[in-house]
Amino acid sequence: MVDKRERIIQAAIDVFSEKGIEKATISEIVNKAGIAQGTFYLYFTSKLAVMPAIAEVMVNKILEGITSEVKDGPISQQIEVIIRVIFNITNEYKELTKLIYTGLTQTQYVGNWETIYAPLYRWIEDLLQKGKEAQAIHPDVNIKYTAKILIGSIESVAEQVYLYDHLDAESIAGHKKELHKFVTNALRAYQ
């Protein structure tokens, strides 16, 4: 059974998506979640306080996708899979992505971004460290900085093609290909 916090988060996603963040009310969120209004405040101090939890949902979707799809093999191939997963999730959850950016940037919670993304960054850092140990990427690559740059770059291009440009499949494939070349060249990936 889904716990109350998760029900609140899902209800907030639904209500925010339907009404917009400004017009949505806590009453609508709790009605959708099927809980008492007081229960909401046990978990969140305001409707905007739900935004970091919504962002965590998206980061978890990305993390689940890459952990299940990225297999052992050449680092170049692993990066290609990461790009594909992030593009697919961004495409599938366009409205949720827009909601997160709108909600977090309107609040004091934008400072939580790095904490929310920390598990994803750590996973990428581990992948890059293995690549360094296997001498598959350049030894001078700083894995801590590069993990953030890598995720930021992939997400930025995925958002550009799906949220702003509305490109056709051929153009999207071209963006993925160029992004892959850019990243592997930057890492000087040898495999």
SSE arrangement:
Elements: H1 4-19, H2 26-33, H3 37-43, H4 51-69, H5 75-92, H6 94-105, H7 113-133, H8 143-165, H9 169-187
Give a short overview.
This protein has helices at 4-19, 26-33, 37-43, 51-69, 75-92, 94-105, 113-133, 143-165, 169-187. By secondary structure, the chain is mostly helical.
Provide a descriptive summary of the structure in words:
The protein is mostly helical and 191 residues long. Helices cover 75% and strands 0% of the residues. It has nine helices and no strands. It has helices spanning 4-19, 26-33, 37-43, 51-69, 75-92, 94-105, 113-133, 143-165, 169-187. Helix 4 (51-69) packs across helix 5 (75-92) and helix 7 packs across helix 8. The longest helix has 23 residues, at 143-165. The protein is elongated and about 55 Å long. The mean pLDDT is 90.
